[in-house]
Write a structure and sequence with these properties.
Layout: H1 2-6, E1 12-14, E2 33-37, E3 49-53, H2 55-63, H3 73-76, H4 86-102, H5 104-124, E4 128-129, E5 138-142, H6 149-160, E6 165-166, E7 176-179, H7 186-199
Length: about 200
């Protein structure tokens, strides 16, 4: 953040896979704008875009001459100028109450514990965790060469009602992804682990 500011630039953090999953110090890290979504650590369906804007970013926005309508922050400050998704906002309120009651440290610890269990499962299954430093919301899995990922996807969904996702972009046919964001109970975690192992037999 300090390096970005030394060049008089705005530091924007994509925290879609980070908010309420891992620590994020907007002020301490000198981040000017944080962009997040509702569908991961906040435990909601997709549908809400969430933006936290710091004073330097507000100032830059005020000075900007770039034409804009929908993304004009001035219209969004302190009000909602368009029809809001009220049901999503009520859900967000409930989610934030839960996170506040649990405490962020406890939330972060639980996310890390679940991620560790999933990655242990991956390695025990003869596969590799793709990222060198994976986040605690999703695990990219590199299966052995020749492994039939589509068969795994089909059996997980058909026999156990579980969906996992393929890779994206250049990694589409290389890895698959296991999401473990949000409120994952011990029972749900055990069910996934046992189901995954049964699909490999």
């Amino acid at each position: 953040g300090k390096l970005v500011r030394s060049h008089n630039k705005i530091y924007v953090a994509d925290a879609v896979s980070g908010v309420a999953i891992s620590p994020l110090g907007m002020d301490d890290w000198n981040i000017d704008t944080v962009v997040a979504g509702s569908q991961k650590g906040l435990m909601l369906p997709p549908g809400l875009g969430i933006v936290a804007v710091g004073p330097r970013a507000w100032e830059k926005s005020d000075r900007s001459k770039t034409p804009r309508f929908y993304w004009d922050w001035k219209k969004l400050k302190g009000t909602v100028p368009f029809t809001p998704a009220l049901s999503m906002l009520f859900q967000l309120d409930a989610s934030l109450e839960y996170i506040h009651a649990q405490g962020l440290e406890r939330i972060f610890l639980r996310r890390a514990q679940v991620a560790d269990r999933i990655r242990d499962l991956v390695r025990r299954s003869g596969m590799e965790v793709y990222a060198l430093k994976p986040g605690n919301g999703i695990t990219g899995v590199l299966p052995p060469k020749g492994f039939d990922t589509k068969a795994l996807f089909r059996r997980l969904e058909t026999d156990f009602g579980i969906q996992i996702a393929g890779g994206l972009g250049k990694l589409k046919d290389t890895i698959f992804r296991i999401g473990h964001v949000g409120h994952v109970t011990d029972e749900e975690l055990e069910y996934f682990i046992q189901s995954f192992e049964r699909c490999l037999k």
